[in-house]
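Re: beginner question about structure tokens

> Can someone show what the tokenized structure looks like for a real chain? I only ever see the sequence side.

Sure, here's an example I had lying around. Input first:
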Amino acid sequence: QVHVVESGGGLVQPGGSLRLSCTASGSIFSINFMGWYRQVPGKERELVATITSDGITNYADSVKGRFTISAHHAGNTIFLQMQSLKPDDTADYYCNARGLYYKDIDEIDHLEVWGQGILVTVSS
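And the corresponding structure tokens:
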């Protein structure tokens, strides 16, 4: 089993900052991709930012210049530093991890796992 756990959400005023963290743990062989997605009620989940094990990052246009994704690869942990937050950034933020895991003691399989989500509310 592999799990991801998010932390760091909460309420912040417009213009403020928050830092989200996500750690993957369990029977991991390797993680080659992690990312943050967000969703508001009635809308599809959308990409926020992603990072590969090679350090290649990708951002949604709506967050470029305001959000920064980083990783501590040895710890299978990623961070999302969010600055200049806007009310439109209010959403449930989900962590995603992809790679390989130990399905059995001598069997490796592809992995994709989502966290439970964490609420970020930007409001005065």
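Each token stands for a local structural state, so reading them left to right follows the chain. The two ends are 40 Å apart (CA to CA).
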